[in-house]
Design brief:
Layout lengths: L5 H7 L4 H10 L5 H10 L14 H4 L18 H4 L6 H91 L34 E7 L5 E7 L4 H11 L11 E5 L4 E2 L17 E8 L4
Parallel strand pairs: 1-5
Antiparallel strand pairs: 1-2, 3-4, 3-5
Helix pairs in contact: 1-2, 2-3, 3-6, 6-7
Length: about 300
């Protein structure tokens, strides 16, 4: 049974003549299978249907293209004159074999593309996992830095509280040394017994009594109160120091300085009043003071 030429077989399978000629020429006339591989590989190229440069013939080591005069299958060639004529049944059988070959090539191409798509998907997933791991490491580093910053701030806050306590203790010791005693809790001295009243008609008017002790009741903002006895000559600063030492820790942080107010008549004591004796401020022999938070200046 006579066989179709490679060019005719490609045209029978539905490939355009120009594209078939180009495929055969660029594959060096190595057969229909090589030409079909080229056609299927380059079918999506934008220049697949552009005419082949005839100067490529000598470069590729072949004669001029089929469409050129004197080509391998051009008019008047020996091959063209001796080409056998195939029967309809033979042509259909050869076309069937070519179509099966085309289908096989398509399947191979689809399998290759599927493998490439799977490989691209694996690479994409691998890159995604690497990116997720890098993002996780970054978040862990940020959380670790934040925890270290909180620990550092907490340590600084505790150190600041300790400095405040030490300062209060130093102030307490200095005031105790300055005023010759401690401003801490001490028992109140017994009240002196009243002198017997003379029944003599020539009794002299009573003289103003001098008190050397002062009993101070301090009302705190939370409703509780402190009571302490001070010397009449002690300064009002001793009372403020006593309050700062005994009012307890306030929630949320360090202690704020306090301001002392008298109940009646209403009076707010200034910083200058802190250096004045209790006797001079009219707080002897007893007084009630109110503690309020000192507003920042």
């Amino acid at each position: 049974m006579a066989e179709l030429t490679a060019l005719e077989s490609l045209i029978e399978m539905g490939f355009p003549r120009g594209r078939a000629e180009k495929a055969l020429a660029l594959t060096g006339n190595q057969g229909i299978e090589a030409a079909m591989d080229w056609l299927m590989e380059h079918e999506d190229d934008p220049d697949v249907d552009e005419p082949l440069d005839t100067s490529l013939g000598h470069i590729l080591g072949r004669e001029p293209t089929f469409s050129e005069p004197g080509g391998l299958e051009g008019p008047g060639s020996a091959a063209g004159e001796g080409k056998p004529i195939l029967s309809e049944e033979e042509r259909q059988e050869q076309t069937k074999r070519m179509l099966e070959l085309v289908a096989q090539k398509h399947r191979e191409r689809e399998e290759r593309e599927e493998r490439e798509a799977l490989e691209r998907e694996r690479q994409r997933r691998r890159q995604g996992q690497e990116l997720s791991a890098a993002r996780q490491r970054l978040q862990e580093d940020e959380m670790r830095r934040a925890a270290e910053e909180r620990r550092r701030e907490k340590a600084e806050e505790l150190a600041a509280r300790q400095r405040v306590r030490e300062k209060i203790e130093r102030d307490k010791a200095e005031r105790a040394k300055k005023y010759g005693g401690s401003v801490g809790s001490r028992p109140s001295p017994p009240a002196p017994e009243p002198a017997p009243v003379s029944s003599s008609p020539s009794q002299e008017p009573p003289t103003k009594r001098e008190y050397d002790q002062c009993r101070i009741q301090v009302r705190l903002p939370d409703g509780t109160s402190l009571t302490q006895t001070f010397r009449a000559r002690e300064q009002l600063a001793a009372v403020r120091l006593y309050v700062e030492l005994h009012r307890g820790e306030e929630p949320g942080g360090g202690q704020d300085p306090v301001q002392l107010l008298s109940g009646f008549p209403r009076r707010a004591f200034s910083e200058a009043d802190m250096e004045r004796p209790l006797q001079e401020l009219g707080l002897v022999p007893s007084a009630v003071l109110i503690v309020a938070k000192k507003c920042p200046s």
